[in-house]
């Protein structure tokens, strides 16, 4: 995969998630080894809102800058 193709894929993530309705986007700074754990933690925390309200929680970001974009998408 070329760097341009990877960047295009990365840039399309927020737009794709908006198809679920609404998306909240947050930037957080975390050590690399905490990126996946932060998404799992948010899934657990937000599950209290009930099924069907939040359709996706994902994380992606700038690994070199320790910045993770957390996105919560769904019907609110």
TrEMBL record:
Xref: InterPro entries: FAD-bd_oxidored_4_C (IPR004113), FAD-linked_Oxase-like_C (IPR016164), FAD-oxidored/transferase_4 (IPR051264)
Source superkingdom: Eukaryota
Gene Ontology CC: one annotated term: mitochondrion
GO molecular function, one term: flavin adenine dinucleotide binding
UniProt catalytic activity: (R)-malate + A = oxaloacetate + AH2
Pfam families for the chain: FAD-oxidase_C
E.C. designation(s): 1.1.99.39
Keywords assigned by UniProt, alphabetized: FAD, Flavoprotein, Oxidoreductase
EC class (word): oxidoreductase
Residue ranges of every copy of the FAD-binding oxidoreductase/transferase type 4 C-terminal domain listed in the record: 3-70
Cofactor: FAD
Entry-linked PANTHER family: D-2-HYDROXYGLUTARATE DEHYDROGENASE, MITOCHONDRIAL (PTHR43716)
Function, in words: Catalyzes the oxidation of D-2-hydroxyglutarate (D-2-HG) to alpha-ketoglutarate. Also catalyzes the oxidation of other D-2-hydroxyacids, such as D-malate (D-MAL) and D-lactate (D-LAC). Exhibits high activities towards D-2-HG and D-MAL but a very weak activity towards D-LAC.
Name the UniProt record assigns to this protein: D-2-hydroxyglutarate dehydrogenase, mitochondrial
Lineage start: Eukaryota, Metazoa, Ecdysozoa, Arthropoda, Crustacea
Gene: d2hgdh_0
